[in-house]
Design a protein that fits this description.
124 residues; alpha+beta; three-stranded antiparallel beta sheet; two-stranded antiparallel sheet; Spt4
């Protein structure tokens, strides 16, 4: 469980450049992912200092925004499976899949990968 906070993107400047992490759906500017990685899943995604990895592990194809202030108490964060993540902006639905190496690592750790696109396999 993380108690940190993700960088909150500015409201209009560069809004079209925002990207969502394919694993946790956190939304940030690509520069933030490159500078700091993903505060929720950097160990697996390894985006810090890698523009290529940011491109592979995030997407501009997402719907909706959720501002999560208190992840552990938020029913929306629980519904979105982000209650154990840092405070920040999250996408409601993210299109795309994590890279194969990340999917294999999750599998090796006994974690079932569920894409965040709200398909049948994404719902509990």
């Amino acid at each position: 469980m993380s108690t940190g906070t993700a960088a909150i993107p500015s409201s209009s400047k560069g809004a079209k450049q925002l990207r969502a992490c394919l694993l946790c759906s956190l939304i940030q500017h690509p520069l933030e992912f490159r500078k700091h990685g993903c505060p929720n899943c950097e160990e697996l995604m390894q985006m810090k200092n890698s523009a290529d990895r940011v491109t592979q592990c995030t997407t501009t194809s997402f719907d909706g925004l959720i501002a999560v202030i208190d992840p552990e108490k938020s029913w929306v964060a629980k519904w979105q499976r982000t209650s154990k993540y840092v405070r920040g902006l999250y996408a409601i639905r993210v299109r795309g899949r994590v890279p194969e190496d990340v999917e294999h690592e999750l599998e090796n750790r006994g974690i079932r990968y569920r894409p965040r696109d709200q398909t049948t396999g994404d719902i509990d």
